[in-house]
Amino acid sequence: MKLTKYYYLVIAGLLIISCKNNNENDLAINDGETSSIEDKVSVLLSKMTLEEKIGQMNQYNGFWDVTGPVPENGDQAKKYDHLRKGYVGSMLNVRGVKEVMAVQKIAVEETRLGIPLIIGFDVIHGYETLSPIPIAESASWDLEAIKKSAQIAAKEAAAAGINWTFAPMVDISRDARWGRVMEGAGEDTYLGSKIGVARIKGFQGDDLTTPFSIAACAKHFAAYGFAEAGRDYNTADIGTSTLNNVIFPPFKAAKEAGVRTFMNSFNELNGIPATGDKYLQRDILKEKWKFDGFVVSDWGSISEMIAHGYAKDGKHAAELAANAGSDMDMESYLYVEELAGLVNEGKVDIKYIDDAVSRILRVKFELGLFDDAYRYLDEAREKEVIGSQEIHDAALDMAKKSIVLLKNENNILPLKKDGQKIALIGALASDKTSPLGSWRIAAKDSTAVSVLEGLKQYSGNTITYAKGADVSIGKTEFAFEVKINTTDKSEFNQAIKVAKQADVVVMVLGEHGFQSGEGRSRTELGLPGVQQELLEAIYKVNKNIVLVLNNGRPLTINWADDNIPAIVEAWQLGTQTGNAVAQVLYGDYNPSGKLPMTFPRHVGQVPIYYNYKSTGRPTLPGEDVVFWSHYQDEENTPLYTFGHGLSYTTFKYSNLKIENTFSENKTVKISVDLTNTGKRQGKEVVQLYIRDVFASVTRPVKELKGFELVALNPNETKTIELILSEDELGFYDNQGTFVVEDGDFEVFVGGSSQTELADKFKL
Ligand code: BGC
Question: Ligand 1: does its nearest atom lie under 6 Å from the Cβ of 67?
Fold first, then answer.
């Protein structure tokens, strides 16, 4: 039986079906519906030389955009030569139908086997039309909207010939100094897992073969968000419990949601660079979780193992990475140069090569690239889809949902739409590039709607703009450090003059879009440059200020919180920034965002997060003694807690009930009544937290375990039910086993992690 099947496959494998290619030995696996992807993969594998197999494991950057340091051993001529020989399996940063077609044609029509390339790109928060940066989208807590945003991004990117995004980043991080918090879902594992899954489903859709969906990539495996001192690429040193309970779950959820690829990370973890870590890639990901897609290295991370002090040279690095389960080499050139030799010397087992190649081919088959390598390459579709109204509408919808109202005293917001003199101050208010954020390689400069444009469009108010001060100096570019203006205050006076004459001052202050993202760590979390001084100078002449923040990370804004009546967190909201901000400021849209990451009072509190451990000395023991876990010079509490966010209406929580039926059906039902007690329709994120009071491994003082976004009319009440099952009640012990332990649990429900109602139950 087995033999017959094998015979059939070989025969099928030898039949040349596709006539599209001119290459002498065209792909012989395209036998329509008859064989499964697995059969096709093994037929193809059996036809490949060792060099062609290794070629599939090699990924080159395209010829113009670079998203990492250019390696010394690579050049354009070599890349073309390798493409023609079939020594390239994937390219990144090639975009646009014409450009992708040019390389895909070489792969399909000029190589011996005609295996198509998989084209990767960082579609992180949109392609050419940008939605809010991921941390901003996460503030919506709106999983449907986030999924839709990814789906729209996939559609636009796919129209440009891309079939694989390096997203979502599901790294949990508790450190606002780390610039890449902009790219994740914040500090919480539960929320981060849900958001990661929503993004994957959006990117990949239900059918990977449509030319509107793209393969997703869960990155960076693992612990990249725990870089020591928040310095990007730095060492991570994580205990088992944090690894299992905080870092792994969003990756595991991504796998379970069917993500087709993983990317490993730059950092070392417990002394081993992730790229060379067999425990992470083979033992956990491929064996324990049974992931059958492929793992791509991060940019150059295979060769970086030399600098880490883990590999003695490039050859050794390739050996370590291949043996550890890194299936594809992004821009190290080491697999293509060294792997064949390593296999021949017996240092890398051919079974690892076959496994890696099978994984890569599997994903290419799933994307339908073997049926038609040019399926993503349709110039008419490219024209029609990129920048279409549908995409802009979705970006605007997501942008509004991402805004968080941090403070609103005396109902200064929403602003009146007519008859008001508004002073708009801050360089970022008129900036049409910075709001596009950090990962915006395909977006053209100056394509965001600025806040100035937005405010003018949505009202009959008189709006007078004054810059006040520049945030950055000179040209700002993706790959280079932003230079911050720390001295030039020459335009303060003009701004002060404008502010004096205004009824309300709207100040747009914060970080430039390129101040967060990869390689952009900070030690100070305040308003950069002279902006704090500008804020205080304006406050002296007009206290009626609405501060609109632009930033890719939590900031320390204590002074503003003490003095400024209204603060709106507007992150970097992408192409539709100005429209979204205007609709919120004027009350056309009632904000409902909630912070996915804690805002510290002081950078010295970092890492600060709501789900901390109690310690043995959590509170002041009665008198004014020092022997408890605290600071001399700052409170322990944050400025704005995780989950915080206001609305133009108000909500009341009441009637918390616990129905403990765990012994019968392994669930505990929590219900609460939510009433809109204000005068406007609004949405609220009902948040459920638990505490496992004592356990064999200590548990956090609070953990998010459920939430629901609820829309209510004024005076309307809804009963919200949230279910705790074993998944929510259990945790990983230090052997990595998931356990649910008997004992006492506390329950907290409310509109932030400093929740309103509390109760208890026992398991
Ligand atoms: C980043 C990845 C990114 C890759 C490709 C790396 O430097 O860490 O997240 O996907 O470059 O641009």
Answer: yes
Q: What is the whole-number distance in angstroms between the Cα of residue 38 and the centre of ligand 1?
A: 30
What pLDDT, on the 0 to 100 scale, is given for residue 181? 98
CATH number 3.40.50.2000 is the correct assignment for the domain at 651-762: no
Q: Pick 77 or 735 by higher pLDDT.
A: 735
**203 Cβ inside 6 Å of ligand 1:** no
Q: Specify the ligand 1 atom closest to the Cα of 265.
A: 8
H helical segments located in 460-504: 492-500
What span, in angstroms and rounded, lies between the C-alpha atoms of 223 and 366? 29
Top mutation candidate among 296, 299, 331, 516 for ligand 1, by most atoms within 8 Å of CB:
299
CATH of domain 408-605: 3.40.50.1700
3-class SS string, 311-352: CCCHHHHHHHHHHHCCCEEECCCHHHHHHHHHHHCCCCCHHH
Per-residue confidence at 413, pLDDT binned at 50, 70, 90? very high
Would you state the pLDDT for residue 33? Answer: 54
pLDDT mean over 185-191: 98
C-alpha 265 – ligand 1 centre gap (Å): 9
The domains of the chain are located at: 55-119, 408-605, 651-762
Residues forming beta bridges with residue 217, ordered by sequence position? 261
Among candidate residues 122, 277, 298, 470, the one labeled active-site is: 298
Q: How many Cα atoms occupy the beta-carbon half-sphere of 490 within 13 Å?
A: 2
Distances (CA, A) of 695 to 246, 266, 698, 745: 16, 34, 6, 10
Residue nearest atom 10 in ligand 1 by C-alpha distance = 166
Question: d(Cα 580, Cα 458) in Å, to the nearest integer?
Answer: 10
| Residue with CA at minimum distance from ligand 1 atom 4 | 299
Predicted confidence (pLDDT) per residue in 467-512, tens digit: 999 999 999 999 999 999 999 999 999 999 999 999 999 999 999 9
Q: Residue whose CA is closest, atom 8 of ligand 1? A: 298
pLDDT in tens, 341-377: 999 999 999 999 999 999 999 999 999 999 999 999 9
* pLDDT (average), residues 168-188: 98
